[in-house]
């Protein structure tokens, strides 16, 4: 069982030492009763009890009732796919250098920067066709090809206006709707004009001719990418946008005239400019003349050169060595390749942390060319500002030159340069030297791990290292560690999954599905489970390249996974396959195989992992929903029969998932006799689950019932009609004394109707569930009832049915004082079935919630943990303070007033919390009051929702060591649990179920009585029935029905709280019986005493002290028992009047009885000595002698007792009067 385990245990230590100084018993030396000394004094046994202490009814299913979160509570899925992905398919490389002729507005320094594309234009090779201009153009094209090989480049060397127009128009025509790059080098022409015009040449190169940006826009169209490497370049961007607005206006006019006309959107143009307006390009001779172009196209060489210029090294590295780093850029294990890899990771990360997410997506994920240029643009920002240039771009991005990661980049460059002399020597063969790889990625992964471990993740702070983790996936060396850290990040929740998807993680994890590396399988399963839990649209991606087979193979029980918790990872695989099939018919088709069926069905027997059983069921459910071929395959492998074995599974989620699978199994289109027989057999086997203790399971059962009803609605029309006949006849017999008949005048109806069918049995279960104690279950069942009754009234049986309904209503109205009126279908609306299940969506939330980190309550330092620790210390303090007082309590009077308040209604049952200052008072109808007895204030008052004619007959706390729940039992057999019972704004029904189904209220009845065993998590339930039912709180199922072996009703139950196997029951005929759950069937009753002759008022087994078993009957006798003896140990005549109540203190040797004559008497349990008495308050109009005591209750630890009388709503609390002197003497 997966139940939340607390660090608190039962308080047993006081039992080991507290009784050493107890007075001797009258019959000899003081001992613990029943022979339980060994268990209570065994240190091993005490440790076992403490380590197996559980909290009950605190799981997610009890907080949500199986309902998934509303859309408003779910983290919104962000669009991460690049639906508008573009390619830069063509590029115009326009170089206006006019080598040898300086433009009139340029004054060059001497020496001056002169390298263009790392070529000196003043040096000519003298070879035909290899002029400096041609070499520079080819070099620029080569540099761009390093960024994008698939782009078609067109060189425009010193172009004219006509050439520029022709090239631009041609490339735009060929590119269609893709992006075109326009690279402009204006080093040999004047600066742009004030209106942003750029210069080219006339045909004879005797004049500079301006090109209007408006014309350039018309030629290139959009989308386009512009690179301006010239002075005053920022001016071009400003004017370009002005002309773009003019184009937009023209487009609007065109669309007004012709709505279907094709237009260009110039807002999708991207610009990179070397400097701002009125800034001149650097002329430093240590830099190339086209420093901006060099940053964009050869970033590594430029960055290394810049580092050398800024940080002169003592190793004698020269600027020329910047271009001599060995290796190839495309090979990441070589020095230059690794440096390029680090540069990509750093610039990507800087952009990720500096840009808004939509802008990052547009600039760094939409187009490979744009992404490469913008990564390198960040370097240009850093380098050129040192030389008083500020590169500009549109869309604008923040300044990133001072980002801390640039220091990591400098370190990486320095590490390379430190090795460069040795690397160059090794390359020449002069020495042996092995390159020492950078530890940059390992350190960044460590930083990411620190982020995950130190709480940054809990604040949902975006991790800076996420793009670096993405880059690390490219490396086999760090891949496994990166995937493990990534899985920890994704485990944080949907916000983390969204971030990872938006950064671009998906293509990498999709490609890794093709890897057969065993060590990657567990982490890949985990990552994909988290992704599919957030975004179901990844189904189509799994279908491509057969990625789904990766998980189907792992799901196979015979496949090996190199990890300890294989079952949990196979559960994730089942979830992945289920999500792959959900609402995706192609996924169902490709997944339909005997292997998947056998894997899922085989996992149903995995007793150690309920999550695997649950998702194996749901995987089958998604595989065959609305897919008849899969259902027939299921029939062939007996899947439905094997699923039915889970009807009694100890985990409610597994039972619900089994019902989900069998619900979707219904509905094979062709209802052959074989199909009908199978479906009826399934329905018959599920009927008993209508009495399941978990409301989520009952809700899922109703979904099955509604699907079955919709499929066989005609059969249910007949079943409902038959039920109406039975109800009419029963009412006649009950209220008119008329013998049961099949029909009479005016109500003739078909007499030959099928009886005792699965349909009639299911219909009765649906009617029972329509009055379920859980409101949601009842509402769902009412929908089915209304549907069927409406169908009856629309069927050929309608006249007969209407007559029956009218007659039933009439008889009920006549017997109004005896029974509530029956109600039938509401015909104002038409209910629709089948009901829709939400269980799959609720179950899938598990994979959207953190699973790796401890729960909040188990995390040291968390608020929940601290509160739990505080409560534990408080509880220990209360126990330590109260245990020494029990000696005094057994010999002093109990007459010091401690509290007095008006409950507002007649108290019927009372219960003190062990540690909180809470007193629960239930009245004679259905009201629960919560009082703070310390402050005499009422904290809350709420209704238990009892139906007419029933009342609460038992109330107790559970989970008292931590945050307690309130459990109530009612005379209609219903048990309910409440959380936050003391808060009017937060009180909430946790669970409600019908613990006894055969209770029939009468004039004299015990109702429902129960006893709660915290150590075992069992609820013993009995009352006006012939059995004692044992409910397991962990599984929420009835685990045992013990024959009471008596014809009398059971008036009270009490059990051994330490072992829990032995319990006692008091009966209405005065008998006291002892039962042992360990005994075989029909031999559970091990002892019966019949010394009492009247109704047993109460029987109680102390939790502490001497563990006395005390019983009292209405004639005033109180008896003490030892389960080893055949007769009572002691008899005390507590009163000669009728005894109305008995309460026993859990630890002190004191008991109290309430009498018929308005007196509460207290006695010493060991000696039988009378201690004192008190009379609860009664109004002045009441005659005290005739107001019996209604209820009494001891505080479990404190020496306090509460009492109340009949016909009065006041409650008195008294405490032992000798405690003050004892405490004073103890302090002295």
From TrEMBL:
GO terms for biological process: cellular response to amino acid stimulus; cellular response to starvation; positive regulation of cell growth; regulation of autophagy; TOR signaling. Keywords: Repeat, WD repeat. Residues 1-18 have a biased composition (Basic and acidic residues). The keyword Nucleotide-binding does not apply. GO terms for cellular component: cytoplasm; TORC1 complex. WD repeats lie at residues 1089-1131. Pfam families: Raptor_N, WD40. InterPro entries: ARM-like (IPR011989), ARM-type_fold (IPR016024), Raptor (IPR004083), Raptor_N (IPR029347), WD40/YVTN_repeat-like_dom_sf (IPR015943), WD40_repeat_CS (IPR019775), WD40_repeat_dom_sf (IPR036322), WD40_rpt (IPR001680). Residues 85-241 form the Raptor N-terminal CASPase-like domain. GO terms for molecular function: protein-macromolecule adaptor activity. Residues 1-29 are annotated as: Disordered. Belongs to the WD repeat RAPTOR family. This is Putative torc1 growth control complex subunit. It comes from Diplodia seriata.
